[in-house]
Amino acid sequence: MITIQGKGVSAGVAEGPLYFFQRAKTVLERYTVEDTAAEWERFKDAQQKCIDQLGELAEKAREEAGDDAAMLFETHQMMAEDLDFEEAIQALITGEANNAEAAVTDAAEQFAEMFASMDDDYMQARAADVRDVSGRILSILYGVVQGGIDSDVPVVLAADDLAPSETIQLDKTKILAFVTEGGSGSSHTAILARTMGIPAIVGLGDQIKPEFEGCTVMVDGSDGKVYVDPDEGTAARLRDKKRQQDEYKQMLEELKGKENVTLDGQPIRVFCNIGSPDDVQAVLSNDAGGVGLFRSEFLYLNCDDYPTEDYQFEAYRKVLSEMDGREVIIRTLDIGADKQIGYFDLPEEENPALGNRALRICLNRPEIFRTQLRALYRASAYGNLGIMFPMVTSVWDVREAKEMCEKVKAELRAEGIPYAENVQVGIMIETPAAAVISDRLAKEVDFFSCGTNDLTQYTLACDRQNNDLGRFFDPHHPAVLRLLKMVTDNAHKNGIWVGICGELGADLDLTETFLSIGIDELSVSPGSVLPLRKKIRETTVSGARDTILADLMG
Q: Which DSSP letter does residue 494 get?
């Protein structure tokens, strides 16, 4: 048995075979082939698999988001079987003895440049389609599995770390737990694990070795340990621990339908953070009051080109409809920093977390912002929508964003397209600047939602993605908690509510502090809803409030 220590970022016990995430190769290999007929057949096989995959994706998109969403994949399907494209590849293989990977790459670049040079905007946009289709065919030729997992049984998934664009593509039915070399408690792998309610351990470094592939491992997300080929005693102990955890979860089921109210009568709303329309079922099954954060950027990460207004509308409509009147707060596009999307062509930055990201991109590229806002307001007719803007630092950027909202509503009125008049507009408080001027910002919006991951990062000058910083990244730091109290006081003075949608909201050690401060809403991963409800219902605030606040501010 080998025991590996990391950092547990999502609790629970899991057991299964270890499987390393298969990432696409990025370095093109060129060589001359002797059997060009066999190489051509290798291409044709990959081409057909690509066409089949795109057909499956089109059907899935049609079921989840309608015909317009499926159209993108159907367009790619047609591109994959385009005769001109195919003939160009054939000439490079059978005529010049190029290997299939080189032939696909060169033909794709030739066609992409041809489309990009055309005067028509629609035809120019086809350049991205060619590159996407060729990339899919190349992945098949390289043996890379779509969804990153080639296994008939669920696995413990190992990786160096996973980018947001990779986590969105995973076949989540195949994952028992995550173990990663790098990452941190606020990495996207950790957030995904908590949303899925499965164990996750990060920061394992080079201890998790490729030769462990296929070995039976047991993961304990509570203490951050991975056991490779566990002995009978360890396996029995962890299985017993899992049984106790399952019994605890069953006990929590009894809290469904109960109020989130303290023993002395102080209520607080408990909502969920999600990243996909598929997560709504987890919100409902865990009996959350609503969605406090829908990370809309994952719609962009799941596309190979800018998602259309109709594509976004169908996704937002689906969430709002399925939530059946419960509030859904959707955060506008929040990319940049650790969430990069190739087709945005963002320039490399030395300090991307301090650069062109989130609302800054939307205000600098209003055509992208307008498309999303139109989709959001159109969807508002189907449920209880709130919109919030991330990465706010000034009053003027909030006013510009609100002005864009008014323009979009005016457009929809002129076009006779229905939308709700009661959409709340709020902002994320995740920079010290926003916290310090929260008294002014509160006059501009309907609510605040505190993103404690970034607020901690910026307040403590501590990169949230750098696991080596360890104890220096301290969300319990009094500077962070004082800012939260300042924000809450300023919100209430101006008659608006305030929530926490960062990972700190699920920290049961701080529940009493948040109640004492006066936080109105906590938005957490679906699996954290019932444990948080239990903690709230066991807490008496009135007797401890003065002591907690004196300690915090003293």
A: T
